[in-house]
Design brief:
172 residues, alpha+beta, Ribosomal Protein S8, Chain: A, domain 1, Dna Ligase, domain 1, 5-stranded antiparallel β-sheet, 3-stranded antiparallel β-sheet, 10 strands, globular
């Protein structure tokens, strides 16, 4: 029970969205990578717009098999209501090839304390094999997911839209 004068211990993600700071992309990266390490067929992630956008990019790039809506128990296509909103999740079907994970590593680049911003020209340098600031070159089979003013995109899409932004994560 909370007593007056006692400090509350808040999770790292608490209050970040309200302050328009970086959402908890590191939580998503950890869940996906741990799911592959444990050789799970499906994993669940919190139902947020950012998580859905990143999951859709992972699906389009072939790192996961499907994205489904559900609750904390499993896939469930019922409507989201104020009564069940706390239990709503996205379920990702992980992909394996010859019993080996398709995704070997997924890591957050920007952190709440240090956002890594890049311009379109810096994105072009990274894709071309060069370094731009703290960002290393794009490796074969790797994707970089960025948050632009127009939305969340894979780095090649951001370049084609001529949009810079901050780098969320890398996956390969």
């Amino acid at each position: 029970m909370f007593q007056y004068g006692q400090k509350l211990i808040m999770p790292k993600c608490a209050g970040l969205v309200a302050k328009r700071q970086l959402p908890c992309i590191h939580d998503l990266c950890a869940r996906v990578q741990n799911g592959y390490i444990a050789k799970l067929k499906n994993i669940s992630i919190p139902e947020t717009k950012m998580n859905l956008n990143v999951a859709q990019i992972l699906y389009q790039q072939g790192f996961i098999s499907s994205v489904s809506r559900g609750n904390h128990i499993g896939i469930d296509y019922s409507m989201t209501t104020p009564e069940n909103i706390a239990t709503r999740r996205y379920w990702l079907s992980l992909k394996y090839r010859n019993n080996n994970p398709v995704l070997s590593k997924m890591s957050a680049v920007s952190k709440p304390s240090r956002k890594i911003f890049a311009t379109v020209d810096e994105f072009k340098t990274i894709v071309g094999g060069g370094r731009a600031g703290m960002l290393g070159p794009l490796q074969p089979g790797e994707i970089i997911i960025v948050n632009t003013p127009l939305g969340v995109y894979e780095i090649h899409e951001a370049i084609s839209l001529n949009q810079g932004g901050y780098v969320l994560c890398r996956a390969h």
